[in-house]
Amino acid sequence: MQYLVDGLLIGCVYGLAAMGMTLIWGVMDVINLAHGIMITLGSFGVYLLATSLGMNPYLALIIAGAVGLLAGMGIYKIAIQKVLDTSHLSTLLATFSVNMILLGLATQAFSTNPRSLDIDLGSITIGSVTVQVTRLLAALVSVLIAAGLTLFLKRTTPGKYIRAITDNRAAAELVGIPSQRMLAFSFGLGTLLAVMAGGLIATFFPFTVLSGDAYQLKSFVIVVLGGLGNPIGALLGGLVLGVLEGILPAFMSTSWVPVIEFVLFVVILLFKPTGLFGVKK
Amino acid sequence: MSLRRAPGFWLLLAVTLAIGLLPIVTGNPMVRETLYTIYLAIALAGSLNIILGYTGYISFGHVVFFGLGGYVGLYLISSFNTSIWLAILAGGVAAGLLAFLLGSAILRLRGAYFALATIGINEAMRAFVNNFPPFGGPTGISLHFSVYQPYGGATQALWLDYGILVALTLASILLSYLVKSSKFGLGLMAIREDEDAAEVMGIHTTQSKTWAYLLSAIIPGMLGVLYYFKNSSIEPSDAFNLASSIELLVMVMLGGSGTVLGPVIGAAGYEILRGYLLLSRLFRDIQLTVSGLLLLLVVLFIPQGAVGWLTRRYPRLRQVII
Amino acid sequence: MNVLQVSGVTKKFGGLKALTNVTFDMPEGQVLGVIGPNGAGKTTLFNVINGIFHPEEGRIVFREQDVTGMRPDRLARLGLARTHQIVRPLNELTVRENVMAGACFGREDHGLKAAGAIADEVLEFVGLADHSRQLASSLNIAEKKRLEMARALAARPYLLLRDEVLAGLDLAEIAIMITAIRQIRARGVSIIIIEHVMQAIMQVSDRLIVLDYGQQIAEGKPEDGMQDSRVIEAYLGNPELAKKLMGSELDDGAA
After folding, report:
1. Is the confidence metric ipTM above 0.90 for this complex?
2. What does the mean pLDDT of chain C come to?
3. What is the domain range of residue C112?
4. Does any domain span residue C35?
5. Do B197 and C84 touch (CB under 8 A)?
6. What is the sign, positive or negative, of the torsion defined by CA atoms of A248, A250, A255, A256?
């Protein structure tokens, strides 16, 4: 039971990260291989703001998110716009090259030493379950952001524009939607989510310059689980993965968990490529 | 172009052979080591090209064949003292088998889905091997130096290893050419250009793709045995390293995918460049950033790679460049 | 012999009936025209004959062999070739290689050398011989359509399915295409042709089938079909208006 709850909480954050990836994928058919480094940078961003400026990490999250949005838009304009509809290989390698560049710079700046924010907000005990407040907060913030994103996509004009270009870009352009600006913005949203997820992770896990990679792999699995382009699906998929990771170690050695994860990943790709929760289209 | 009337091919083969023989002729181990990494890259990139460049399927986890071959080979050598020849054969067969079994399943997927599936398979394999006792789990397999005795000691074994590598590199160039200039290859390229139209034309797409995937896996499987035999140890995180797969993709793209010459140039160029960057004593991290920058520039401005750029600029070259 | 027999073919997509009980026989050597308004199911019919869709009901018999739901590539090897409404050239291959692909994987299963010879001959026939070493992507739309036809012909089919080849061509190009169709028929290839350009299809078809909302509303000689009020209504709505329009068109004379 304890494992279940822990898994659910972490799953929310996983889901948030995966939302970033699935959004970009759904809108412009690009798999962002720089997703992992954005998560890492989010962790470092919040860490630095909290430790050197003494800022409240949750406040730092907002700033990091804003930077993540702008950075993402920049990355789109520089690396992706040109190769957007050419070939999958080109876009994959374009995002991967961004990953390499940023990872190289980050390793230079931060070295591979682990960092940790060591926030202790205590814990809450409900029945047989003890929950760390940091994890609880992280999960809540994740759900809030996810809800915010969904509302944004459904209710606001830019959100509708984004959904339009996801559906049919050519038609959207014909009705006057500024697609390139919206694409850049969508990419920025994707990286914003990654950065914020990274920041949240920093509040309860230690991390290194290389941590983002593992979360990127998890995001792959979640995106496929949840259905491509489906943000709610990503959140739910994150929960599923979180629960799996929480519960499975009770039945088998932890090192078998990745095997299960990736086999599940391939199986779903093969038999239900639209994901457990369906594609958002 | 039949085998006889293909000057470009014979020239490439001759040059590759000549340079490959250089260290053997001079007996110089340092040259041998430099050429080792380059030739390994050429052979791997050339194999990847069969599924990537000819068939148009982006294999993101190609290193899985290299790693699996290495593990099978080293397992046989360390547990049963098999000869290197048998081990290499077994590595190739194992990789081919994996490609055949998995290929039938995942080749149904297209584009990015297929790429993701290959990543998933690589990661699943890595996680699995990490838990698999016969393969040594997380610590992997280490060879006792006595395994080099049948070959006259470690130094001799290294020379033998290198020699086989050169042979396999030549084989991969030959295979690449044979596929490209065959009816089978025409079918693959049709699949690459428009898979549905290819099917309507009469091409058995599932069969062709599976064969392409299989062919692209065998040599890497063999190369894995060679590499890890030389290394005398193998462990999961290194054997199934995703970054290596991506490096192979970069090499193929740099040189120009879909040609025989492209991956050769791309691989050689990439390894030589990397060698220089490492020599200049800057930290590994700068190497990553610089490589990333170069990759981005290539993707944005010369996506067709070196060979592609050449044939576009000088279309007559298309007749000669293979 | 009937080169093709379509009996009772019904194709549904979810709740939508794209084809309902389509039935016709096609003797060898005939040119059969399929017409109908947009969305009538013409391309769907081709897709069913071709093996891309499986019909819910009905059978397709090709040269006395039941081929219902057979894979498209098997059908190609049996001698059924097809061109597409939106051309699908193999872009990064040369024109010659495109046509060779047709010859290699079509009915006669040629090796590369023989395929090359066939390709040269067919390219000559469609008038693309000068472009044979160019990349397919460098051709203009009319040339690409000819390439598609060349590729289909190189497969030496018994039956050729041609989907709206004339769209976007000017009158001169259309005339060339019509001549080409007649020449192909003279070589013994049966042809089913979907077209919207009325004059062309009237000139070239031996028989006509009219589809509307997936149903076969008329079948027979071209002149009869055009007089059939159901056909006119399907296309134009008001039969009287149509007669007036058709009358004035005929007066202008064919171009």
Report:
1. no
2. 85
3. 88-157
4. no
5. yes
6. negative
